[in-house]
Recover the amino acids of this structure.
């Protein structure tokens, strides 16, 4: 997976590049609009991350050029601007997502993965699983080590999200948005409590823990060998 | 196009009006005096002509005329400005008392003529009344001095027009300057307004009626500017104040960590600490920007028909685990419909519920009441809040207990301010009340929306 980052703030670009590299993506970094557009049109990228304010050509112009060239590469905008009309403008031009600075890297990573997954055909899985945990999507049943586990509808949805995106750190805001449709940052610890309750049912009776807290960043479902 | 000042414009208009009026008056006067002269001349010519008629009565040939010429000349001698010509019916001149008269014959009646530098008024008649074959008498009156008088008067009229126009222009300029003084005052006030002196106001009571409205409008504008500026100042001050603690924590923590080599675990711990502090700051800045947008009227809620019971149920489901943990019972009563922005309203209600959960003791209850009409009430049991404090709950960064925020994971005190902004953006109002052991937040959306 190759990503192009066009960001004129040297540090921001460098950090993003490093973070995405370490998350397993190949990245290319351009620090001005002209170079950014050239690379966007010539390189074969799976995703473009564009800053709006750039020297030379701004992010919107690059986006226009890319769409005019017939490329449907997903585009994620980063901006310090937060006006509604900006948002509308960007989405009209064909941007796929939007992140307003300041944002958390875990949020960016989660969105990047969502966008990259969007192109792929939706999974037809009827069951999801990790280690000895099984989720039957049709019968809405969960079991671990052959033991049936009773889950509420939201607990089921939460576990389904964690399983579908296993190995990814999911920020609390993303969980709130995907499971409860609460699309705003709030400083409540609802998600913590919900995760704790899920753990109580999924992990507590078993020595091999699957749900892990990544401090200050979110939660991840994965099998860890101690 | 060059801009003409209001003063000069008025002065020029005044001058033009005066010129037109005096010109009109002059023309009427000059026409009237000319008419008057014509009448005088006619009277004179009529009386003279009847005299000559009697003298010349009966003549039909030039020969007969010769006999009467001495008396005629004598009569004409008395009046230097009169001249007479007699023509036969064939047009031949029988007699001319003076040379250089305008050519004859003329049609019968009064005429004004000019010949060889002299102006004449002439009256032509036939000797025998109503007999065209009888000789024609034409009497000429020299009116050069009348014409001179009229010309002089016309010059005088033009002079008057010019002078009065000039005088009114000058006087008008002065009057306009005086009359427009309130406008200049306005200009001075406007010029003196700066960020430091937004409290200056125009004295509306002293303004003339026409300007009072403008002055009121300008004062209202100043008021709005002042409010906006105050908000902006408070906003910057709040931000600076609220960021100070976490920034100072970050600085201290980072510097202390770097003063000597530490274990990997300690570095990780330090970064985590910083991360928490930074996340708190980022959240606060985003919230502040949201509020700033609301302050500037940039918050434009969507307009979707919402079933509030469903929205509230979703929120109660979201908060259910937290409520169960704190031993608080949550329930909804009633139903309501509303046009509005789903995400914003969820956020507003979520802040109210979050707030209620914070202050409801274990074993307490949170009750969301919908209706009647587009009204939402969120009530919780708990310690009573001072009545004086209730309206301040919606102020940004207001905390009932100022000492509460130590440690960054604590609430920033923006939740209720955000709720109020969202409610106001929907054209609603929110208030807090406290009675019988219940703290209640009531949102009223106006019916006509």
């Amino acid at each position: 997976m190759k990503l192009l980052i066009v960001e004129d703030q040297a540090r921001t670009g460098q950090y993003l590049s490093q973070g995405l590299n370490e998350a397993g993506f190949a990245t290319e970094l351009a620090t001005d609009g002209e170079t950014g557009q050239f690379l966007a049109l010539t390189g074969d990228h799976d995703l473009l991350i564009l800053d709006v304010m750039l020297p030379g050509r701004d992010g919107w112009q690059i986006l226009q050029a890319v769409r005019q060239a017939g490329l449907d590469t997903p585009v994620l905008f980063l901006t310090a601007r937060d006006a509604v009309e900006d948002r509308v403008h960007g989405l009209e031009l064909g941007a796929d997502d939007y992140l307003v600075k300041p944002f958390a890297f875990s949020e960016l990573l989660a969105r990047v993965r969502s966008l990259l997954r969007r192109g792929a055909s939706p999974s037809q899985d009827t069951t999801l699983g990790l280690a000895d945990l099984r989720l039957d999507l049709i019968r809405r049943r969960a079991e671990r080590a052959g033991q049936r586990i009773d889950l509420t509808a939201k607990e089921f949805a939460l576990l389904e999200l964690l399983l579908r995106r296993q190995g990814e750190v999911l920020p609390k805001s993303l969980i709130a948005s995907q499971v409860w449709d609460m699309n705003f940052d709030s400083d409540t610890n609802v998600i913590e409590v919900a995760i704790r309750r899920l753990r109580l049912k999924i992990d507590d009776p078993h020595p091999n823990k699957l749900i892990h807290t990544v401090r200050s960043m979110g939660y991840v479902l994965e099998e860890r060998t101690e | 196009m060059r801009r003409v000042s209001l003063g000069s414009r008025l002065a020029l208009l005044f001058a033009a009006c005066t010129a037109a009026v005096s010109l009109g008056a002059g023309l009427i006067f000059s026409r009237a005096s000319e008419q008057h002269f014509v009448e005088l001349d006619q009277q004179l010519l009529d009386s003279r002509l009847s005299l000559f008629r009697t003298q010349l009565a009966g003549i039909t040939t030039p020969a007969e005329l010769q006999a009467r010429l001495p008396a005629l000349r004598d009569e004409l001698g008395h009046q230097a400005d009169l001249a007479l010509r007699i023509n036969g019916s064939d047009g031949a001149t029988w007699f001319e008392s003076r040379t250089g008269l305008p050519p004859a014959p003329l049609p019968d009646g009064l005429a004004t003529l000019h010949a060889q530098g002299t102006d004449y008024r002439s009256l032509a008649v036939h000797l025998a009344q109503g007999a065209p074959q009888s000789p024609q008498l034409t009497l000429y009156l020299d009116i050069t001095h009348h014409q001179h008088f009229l010309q002089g008067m016309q010059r005088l009229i033009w002079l008057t027009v010019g002078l009065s126009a000039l005088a009114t222009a000058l006087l008008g300029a002065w009057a306009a300057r005086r009359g427009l003084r309130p406008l200049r005052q306005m200009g001075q006030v406007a010029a003196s307004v700066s960020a430091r002196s937004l409290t200056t106001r125009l004295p509306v009571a002293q303004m003339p009626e026409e300007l009072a409205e403008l002055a009121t409008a300008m004062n209202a504008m100043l008021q709005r500017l002042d409010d906006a500026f105050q908000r902006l100042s408070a906003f910057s001050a709040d931000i600076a104040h609220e960021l100070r603690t976490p920034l100072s924590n970050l600085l201290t923590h980072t510097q202390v960590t770097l003063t000597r080599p530490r274990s990997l675990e300690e570095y990780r711990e330090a970064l985590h600490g910083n991360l928490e502090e930074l996340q708190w700051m980022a959240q606060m800045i985003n919230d502040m920007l949201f509020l700033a947008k609301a302050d500037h009227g940039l918050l434009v809620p969507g307009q979707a028909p919402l079933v509030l019971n469903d929205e509230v149920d979703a929120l109660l489901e979201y908060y259910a685990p937290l409520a169960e943990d704190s031993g608080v019972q949550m329930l909804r009563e009633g139903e309501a419909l509303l046009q509005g922005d789903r995400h914003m309203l969820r956020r507003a209600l979520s802040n109210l519920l979050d707030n209620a959960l914070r202050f409801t003791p274990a074993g307490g209850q949170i009750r969301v009441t919908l209706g009647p009409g587009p009204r939402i009430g969120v009530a919780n049991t708990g310690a009573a809040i001072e009545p004086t404090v209730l309206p301040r709950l919606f102020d940004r960064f207001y905390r009932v207990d100022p000492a509460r925020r130590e440690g960054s994971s604590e609430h920033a005190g923006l939740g209720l301010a955000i709720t109020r902004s969202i409610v106001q953006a929907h054209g609603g109002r929110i208030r807090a009340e406290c009675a019988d052991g219940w703290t209640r937040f009531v949102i009223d959306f106006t019916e006509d929306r």
User: Anything to note?
Assistant: The interface with chain A takes residues 272, 275-276, 279, 281-283, 285-286, 289, 293, 298, 300, 314-315, 317-319, 321-322, 325, 343, 346-347, 350-351, 354, 357, 409, 411-412, 415 of chain B (CB under 8 Å). DSSP finds nine helices and twelve strands in chain B. Confidence is low (pLDDT under 50) at residues 403-409 of chain B.
